[in-house]
Amino acid sequence: QVQLVESGGGLVQTGGSLRLSCAASGRTFSSYAMGWFRQAPGQAREIRAAINWRGDITYYADSVKRRFTISRDNAKNTVYLQMNSLTPEDTAVYYCAAKSGVSALAVPTTRGGYDYWGQGTQVTVSS
Fold first, then answer.
1. pLDDT tens digits, 32-73
2. For a disulfide at 102, which of 11, 16, 106, 125, Cβ 3.0-4.6 Å?
3. Could you tell me which of 96, 83, 78 has the C-alpha nearest to residue 124?
């Protein structure tokens, strides 16, 4: 069992940046693949980025490539999402997710690929 708590959301202008953090409880964080998803009102929850438990394999949705960077610090039980060049289309609630019992190469990219979820943090980008 792991608990995830996101932070770092807020209101930013177009072109601005935010850094989201997801702090995980538990002693086995380093064995979890991690992902960041977003969900806008009336829309499905969709992947933004994911990272394997070693931190050396990443995945990005096409719309965030070269703008977002996912990283993790296993010593701090924390995964980050650095978001740059934000646009109003990035406005959504952002969720952190964890997947246990996966290989070192695993980078789940679907909602169903994760076992645990945080409560979400709101990101609003004004035009």
1. 999 999 999 999 999 999 999 999 999 999 999 999 999 999
2. 106
3. 83
